[in-house]
Specification:
There is one protein chain. The protein is mainly alpha-helical. The protein has one domain. Helices cover 55% and strands 5% of the residues. It has a two-stranded antiparallel ribbon. Strand 1 and strand 2 form a beta hairpin. Helix 1 packs parallel to helix 5 and helix 3 runs antiparallel to helix 5.
């Protein structure tokens, strides 16, 4: 499968622009993983760091679930990788994880995120309130934060991918 990425139209309305950039960054992370073996995807960037492409995808799966399930709707989607005992479990790989199972969980989280946000307006507020402000987040803020989260981790993914096989790109 070849990942295609298109930037949102420069004259799109606000919601289309936010959703377009979020999807662009989601596809960028998938692109960084494209064509690698499970072993390569599990390979940590540089010791002692545990940062790997598979760990980044698992992390973004948890992030999708957190912001679009727990924060936005106040729902508890259950545990995937992170637990109270291992809050960084998304990055702690055992060596048995596969790209197929990880990608399927990530894509399912993305589809649920899209479904949860589709019925809401950008100004609609989350059920959960911010820990520091005590204020709810509007959907616009969540979209913007998710774009930032993916963009930051895509920078990490770019460096990990370059270390693995020399591939670079935006």
């Amino acid at each position: 499968m070849t990942i295609t990425r298109e930037e949102p139209a420069q004259n799109a309305d606000e919601r289309s622009m936010l959703e377009g950039w979020l999807d662009y960054h989601r596809r960028t992370l998938a692109w960084k993983c494209e064509g690698l073996t499970d072993e390569q995807l599990r390979t940590a960037s540089v010791e002692p760091s545990e940062l790997s492409l598979l760990g980044l995808v698992r992390h973004m799966t948890e992030v999708e679930r957190w912001w679009f399930h727990e924060v936005l709707l106040g729902e508890d989607p259950g545990v995937l990788y992170c637990t109270e005992d291992d809050p960084d479990g998304d990055f702690h790989l055992t060596g048995t994880e596969t790209w197929d199972e990880t990608r399927a969980a990530w894509e399912a989280a993305i589809e649920t995120s899209r479904r949860h946000s589709a019925a809401l307006a950008l100004d609609d507020f989350s059920k959960m309130r911010g820990r520091t402000t005590g204020e709810p987040f509007n959907l616009r803020w969540i979209y913007t934060h998710m774009i930032e989260e993916y963009a930051r981790h895509n920078g990490h993914a770019d460096l990990v991918r370059e270390r693995l096989d020399g591939s670079t790109g935006d």
